[in-house]
Structure formats: structure tokens, C-alpha cells
Amino acid sequence: MSLQKNEPSAGGHSAEEWDGLLEGEEATYKELIEIAQKAANQGDATAQYFLGAAHYFGKGVAIDLKAAFEWYFKAAAQGLPHAQYNLGVMYASGEACPPNPEKAFLWYEKAAAQGLAKAQHNLAALWEAGLGAPKDVKKAAQCYEAAAQQGDVRAQYRLALLCLKEEEGLQQGLQWLQKALEQNFAPAKYTLGLLLENGVGMPQNTAEARRLYEEAALSALPEAQAALERLK
Q: Which of 61, 83, 154, 159 counts the most CB atoms within 10 A of its CB?
């Protein structure tokens, strides 16, 4: 899609469409900012989200994390899940605000409840680590699975690891690991290599383990590089 400078309103565009516009030509950014600014000032949540992203990444404007935070907050307060997720990220990492895992948890939870897979993954990670809320591995697994079912490769991998920690979860863990492998996820290659090297859940196969370590090492995964050193 394209937006013309004389287009009267940016209302109605989805967060995904605004994300796509951020990938456009540099010359169009300032025009897009003008359009978005008018809509954002009128309370359009997706335009507010776009301005947040523009300020965060420095597209059409100078990088300004404080402004990004403020625009994300406006959009998040209106219930936009992508803005809620990004606000959670900023709270988690302490960008333009002190690190606050409790507030990160709150905003991830709101976005996750609307089905946003990456928010479900990050919420699960907080449950698993006990950050922002008491540790609850069962709830972490539930959130990981919700994201994994949508194809989020990080969630597929983390869910696989949780399953593999339980003897009765071995087969389910291998199934989720396979899904992550189908997306060429380097940590999944390393983990499957580790299982093959040690004969866990399958016959031991050092040669295949080495091959997987080599593939994972191409992504500069330190664990895979260390495993190759060990097998020399």
C-alpha cells in the first residue's frame, strides 16, 4: 500500500501496515510522519504506534526513545497489542524508563491476551524466570504453547526445552524441537545435536551431531562452536 501526502487521514491502517511503511524509501518518511501526526493527534492508535516506531528507529525523525515511549504508551492505552508489546520491551530493557519487569509483565499480558504471539513468548519467559510475577513454569508452558501454535519459533524452542526437562515430556519436546528445526532455528540444531551426541531419546549418532553443530555454528552460536571444539 502507499500513502499520498494529500491523503486526509491515516486512520484505519493496521499496525502491520505501518510497520511495512517503515521499510519504505527514506524520502517518504517525512510525508508519512506528517500524515501520521495528524491522525495521532486525533487519537488514532495505529498512527500513534507508527510515530512511536518512527522515533524508536529514527525513520523520518531523529531517534528519540522518550518520544517513542510516549507514543507507544498512548497507543497501548487504547488497547493496540503491538504497542503494548513494544512498551513491554521498553520497560523490560529500561529504555527511556527505569527497568521495570512488573510493568513489562503487565503490558505483555495485555498484548498476549489479544493473541499476539511475540507477546505470549515474552510473557512466558517472565513466568519461567519469575520476573514481574512469581515463577510459574506451568503458566510459562501454556504461554509458550499459545505462541508456538502460531509458529513463533522462539516459543517452539523454549517449549521444547521445558518438555525435555521432564522424562514424560520427551516425545512432545522432540516434536516441538522438530518444528523449530523446520524454521532453521540454530539453537534447535544445537540442542538436537546434543541429544544425538548423548543418545537421549534416540540412538547415539556423533557424526550427525557434529553436522548439526556445524550448521548451528554458522549462526555464530557459542554453544555450537564449543561443542565442535569438544568433538575434535
A: 159
Q: Distance between CA 178 and CA 188 in Å, rounded?
A: 8
Q: Do 70 and 64 form a contact (C-beta atoms < 8 A)?
A: no
Could you give the CA distance from residue 207 to residue 45 in angstroms, rounded to a whole number?
A: 53
Whether the Cβ atoms of residue 215 and residue 226 lie closer than 8 Å to each other: no
Instruction: Say what the pTM is.
Output: 0.86
Residue 6 CB burial class (10 angstroms; 0-12, 13-18, ≥19): exposed
Report pLDDT digits (tens) over 207-222: 999 999 999 999 999 9
Integer Cα distance of 103 and 88 in angstroms = 7
Q: Cα–Cα distance between 96 and 86 in angstroms, integer? A: 12
Buried (b) or exposed (e) across 27-60, using 16+ Cβ within 10 A?
ebbebbbebbbbbbeeebbbbbbbbbbbbbeebb
**How do residues 112-139 score in pLDDT, each as one tens digit?**
999 999 999 999 999 999 999 999 999 9
